[in-house]
Amino acid sequence: MSAPVILVTGGSRGIGAATARLAAKRGYNVALTYANNESAAARVADEIRVMGRQSLALRANVASEEDVARAFAAVDEKLGRLSAVVINSGITGHNSRLDEADTSTLREVINVNLLGAMFCAREAVRRMSTRHGGTGGAIVFISSRASVYGSAGEYVWYAAAKGGMDSLGIGLAREVGREGIRVNVVSPGPIGTEIHRPGRLEKVVDRCAMGRAGRPEEVAEAALFLVSDAAAYCTGANLAVAGGA
């Protein structure tokens, strides 16, 4: 029996890389996308091959509909039918108040975090849905607890984009639930990744009931649970991995 195939967007570092590695350990062949850091993506793909699994590292700007379509087509050709997609790509843009933010920042953050998630989910549904001849599958959006906090004074546009992703997860779950596709959301709180500016993580940890930052691997565990058969009756859920924040 061939191994199931998973695609992880933004898989070269942080939560995405942890998810890609864990998926390989759980028996998946893994495709991952990256925006710029080719060497980091290649390292993750090489680690996965050492585990005995197939892996592809695909350069793609998820805000580009053409890039997304090419990435999914490459997975079709080289790895086969997708079983799961974890949509993880995300950026915050430069920190500031909204009234000090450049329009270019607002557009880029919305395009990558929200429109990009829609492009990826659309391609996934076109392959997985029984309406399109597919056999089902699972989609997980990596959102953020910023959608609840609002991120005032830092990047309210990022929080707003993630709030849109939360709504997308609910709506899409209801739209394709009878077509064999489960759709869920994971909302990390403060996680020790490169997305934080220096010193920020130590400050925001104060809002966590557990008093510590999370690890990318802890978010990856949640994502892999939600794409697994153990979560067969979970769709439209939003799982906070936030240490009580």
Strand order of the largest sheet: 3-2-1-4-5-6-7
Query: What does the main sheet amount to?
Result: 7 strands, parallel
What share of residues is helical? 40-55%
Give the CA-CA distance, first to last residue: 42 Å
Number of domains: 1
Mean pLDDT: 95
The topology string of helices and strands comes to EHEHEHEHEHHEHHE
As a whole number of angstroms, the C-alpha radius of gyration is 17 Å
Tell the overall outline. globular
Share of β-strand residues: 15-25%
Task: Give me the CATH architecture, please.
Answer: 3-Layer(aba) Sandwich
Folded structure, characterized:
The protein has 245 residues and is an alpha/beta fold. The chain has a single domain (5-241), classed as Rossmann fold. The protein is 44% helix and 16% strand. It is built from 8 helices and 7 strands. It has helices at 14-25, 38-50, 65-78, 103-128, 146-149, 156-176, 200-204, 216-227, and strands at residues 5-8, 29-34, 55-59, 82-87, 137-142, 181-188, 238-241. A 7-stranded parallel beta sheet has the order 3-2-1-4-5-6-7, with helices on both faces. The longest helix has 26 residues, at 103-128. The model has no long low-confidence stretch (mean pLDDT 95).
